Amino acid sequence: MKLSELRPREGAKSAKKRIGRGESSGQGKTAGKGHKGLRARSGGGTKPGYEGGQMPLQRRLPKRGFTNVFREEWAIVNVKDLNRFEAGSVVDLDALRSEGLVKGPASGVKLLGDGEVTRKLAVKVDRASKGAILKVQAAGGTVEV
Hints:
Elements: H1 57-60, E1 74-78, E2 90-91, H2 93-98, E3 108-112, E4 122-124, E5 127-128, H3 130-138, E6 142-144
Parallel strand pairs: 1-3, 2-4, 3-5, 4-6
């Protein structure tokens, strides 16, 4: 058997329905769309969420909660992420951004104590957990909050 001899099984493939090609085709005149109405028009159809005039679900459900416009978004950096910096370097917001650890707008950087740090670093952040400060100091580094 050769690749060129491969064919689909009998009945597996059916011919494309050619609509709007004369009355005798069975799909002529209105081309299977019925007479007039929204779905019969070109480009016609309903928007997502439209329920035929019934009150839509998103309007039937009650509103919940609110959005705090004064919310502060903190960039989270763990102690284990600091191992990518060279020993003796200063780790601040600019250094963290250049390494890709802080992305987008942030109110500040918070250092958390997940993992271990093996290098002596001078870390300058806006907030830090007690465990993170202890781990950086245990490695010989300093944390300036």
